[in-house]
Structure formats: C-alpha cells, structure tokens
Amino acid sequence: xxxxxxxxxxxxxxxxxxxxxxxxxxxxxxxxxxxxxxxxxxxxxxxxxxxxxxxxxxxxxxxxxxxxxxxxxxxxxxxxxxxxxxxxxxxxxxxxxxxxxxxxxxxxxxxxxxxxxxxxxxxxxxxxxxxxxxxxxxxxxxxxxxxxxxxxxxxxxxxxxxxxxxxxxxxxxxxxxxxxxxxxxxxxxxxxxxxxxxxxxxxxxxxxxxxxxxxxxxxxxxxxxxxxxxxxxxxxxxxxxxxxxxxxxxxxxxxxxxxxxxxxxxxxxxxxxxxxxxxxxxxxxxxxxxxxxxxxxxxxxxxxxxxxxxxxxxxxxxxxxxxxxxxxxxxxxxxxxxxxxxxxxxxxxxxxxxxxxxxxxxxxxxxxxxxxxxxxxxxxxxxxxxxxxxxxxxxxxxxxxxxxxxx
Length: 407
Ligand SMILES: *Cc1c(COP(=O)(O)O)cnc(C)c1O
Ligand SMILES: [Zn+2]
Known about the structure:
Elements: E1 8-13, E2 19-20, E3 35-39, H1 41-47, H2 50-54, E4 85-87, H3 89-95, E5 100-104, H4 114-127, E6 132-136, H5 140-152, E7 155-161, H6 166-174, E8 178-182, H7 186-200, E9 203-204, H8 213-217, H9 219-227, E10 235-239, H10 244-259, E11 268-274, H11 279-286, H12 314-323, E12 327-331, H13 333-347, H14 353-367, E13 377-381, H15 389-392
Parallel strand pairs: 5-13, 6-7, 6-9, 7-8, 10-11, 10-13, 11-12
Antiparallel strand pairs: 1-2, 1-3, 4-5
Bound molecules: pyridoxal-5'-phosphate and zinc ion (ZN).
C-alpha cells in the first residue's frame, strides 16, 4: 500500500449512521445529526509508525494521516506547536494527586485551543473550494477562525455576544472578518449567522455543523498520549461548552485504540461546566441522553467559553463521558477566580477561567474520593489567561517616585 498523507475515507452521521461523501463540503446530516470523519486505519497502520511520528516537526500536523487535509500543500499553518504538558507539583501535593498534569493550550496561535479546530477546519474548507465562511462564537473561536481564514484568503463573518471578552472582537475585526455583536447569547448569534450564510450562499462553520473542527481538536488527545510515551492517563478533565473538544478527545482515543497504538483502560472523561450554565451536567445527573437548553436569561459565568446554553453535540458528549466511566460537574465562579490566582501563585501557570474551572473540578473530585491519589490526571487549560484581562485587573501596587529607595 502506498503512503497516504490523509487516510480520510468518508463521513458518518453520528445519529443515523448514514454514510456521506467527504470529498465535497458537508454540514449536518439530513436527520440533523453532526457528521464525523472516518479514516482508513489499516492504511494509517501501513503508512506510519509511532516512531516515525516522533521524528516529525513538533506541530499538530505531525498526525496528518489522522487529519482530513489531503496534502502538505493544503495545510494552513500559523505555527501550531505541540503544547506543554506540565506537572503541577505544588498543587498536586496539596490535593493529594502527585501525578497531576496540565495540558497548557495558551501558546497556540490566537491564544486558545480553538486554533486547532480552525487550522484544520479552514485548511479543509479551502481545499474543498469554499471561499467564504460564517459562524457564531463566544470569542475565541471567532478569533481563531478569522486569523486562519485571513491566512487562507477566505472571507469570514462572525457573530459574537456583546459580553464576550473584548480582545476577541479586535482579533476578528483586525483579521478582516465581518464582525457583528449581538445583545444576547451564542445561541442567538448562531441563529443570525446561520441565516446570513444561507442567504449569501456562504459556508456555515459553526461548532459541529461542519465535520472538521472536531478533527483539529482531537489532536489534544493525540499529543497528550504521545507526550506520555504512548500511554493513557487515568483521567482527562475538560471545560465543556459546545463539547467539541471532549468529543474530539474521545474520538482520538478510540482511533488510537483501534490502531493498536495504545492499550489498557480508556481514560475517564470529565465534563466540567460552570454553575451558571450547566446543561450537560444537568442531563448527566438526571440520566438523560440529551440536554435541555439552559434558560437564556440565567446563563452566566466568568468562564465565558462555557456560556453555551445548548449544543447539538449534547448526545455525543454525554455518551462519551458515560462510556468512559467519567462524570460531569459544575463549579462556581468564586471558586474559579480563586483557583486562577492559586495556580499562578503556586505554579506560575496563568490559567484561563475555563481551565481554572477544570482544576476546581479536580479539587472537588479528589475531596469526594472520586479521584485516587495514584491516578494520573490531565487538566486541559484551553486558553491563555491573558485574554481575560477583565478578570485580572485592576491590580493595586504602590506607586514610587523615581528617586525612591526600597529596603
Ligand atoms: C470554546 C472554549 C471552551 C469550550 O470548548 P468546546 O469545545 O466548545 O466545549 C473552553 N475553553 C475555552 C477557553 C474556549 O474558548
Ligand atoms: Zn443522520
């Protein structure tokens, strides 16, 4: 068998299992289900080994056989380096989890893990001949997709809640996106963006409404497993908004198992949400297969990326968490703010509020005995705390005159 750059074979509907052609642009299945990319894993096995991957450039593109982009020439890159997997020794000692790790996504282009989904999603859209995309965002996805769209020469339209972190507005607008603000939630932005792309004949690139963002995000799990020497951690803790990251992580773990590149029990996946917007947690606790939309007027949290009152990924997230033996829990804004400060003070790591929420969840799960001292736990810090200046400022410090002398 000849070498393949991408082993993408087709798309499957995640609800009704209908097979779809991956060689043309696709959104949802006719049944309303999100489509998932499928690969010829025998071809991957015949083409590449883990040792060969280790010799490739340190970028998410090193896993190109398991990504949908068909050739090196079609890659759209802004330097998606492998992100650090850092031990949290001091906090780990405090919590009684000596093997606690954080996967720190802050160094990615545009300062969040949304770059993974955007890099792969934009590159695939461009190679399928798409020239204009539109999407709603809570900020970071818009920033990432606008930047990658600029890189690839695509037009972009972004609709964002007025309450989203302000810096992300500038990132979208300065990258040339047509930016609109809506005095509402991401669900309102989604409806407006969807209607606009339909009227214009543009491509809808919203979460899970195109199949390749999840492929980019799954590289988080590929990196974690490779960084651990192709071993699986016991638990992965993920701050869940639309849930694409968690769906991607579960998908990557399944693909690795099927390739025979990992063995042993699958990590338990933990979906963390904010108490102010926790539709997945509520559904998980009640045993429901689907989540009910969180009441719009009530959805609020400092972890803005988690302000997602409803997602079409709900069943996939719930299913992935349950199949892994994982759990879902919501944490409060005060605890998130305290954890953000504590992690910077104790570890030198500035988490975004979403990442801090995941760490709060670890603290609570350890206290409840759900996590064992011997377990290796990986927390996802999904973005840079620097994008949330409003949660960090103002800072009080004494102002000195230029001739001041300090003892
Ligand atoms: C978007 C976002 C999330 C949630 O990601 P999903 O994949 O939609 O669940 C978490 N953290 C940050 C910083 C984000 O920007
Ligand atoms: Zn279907």
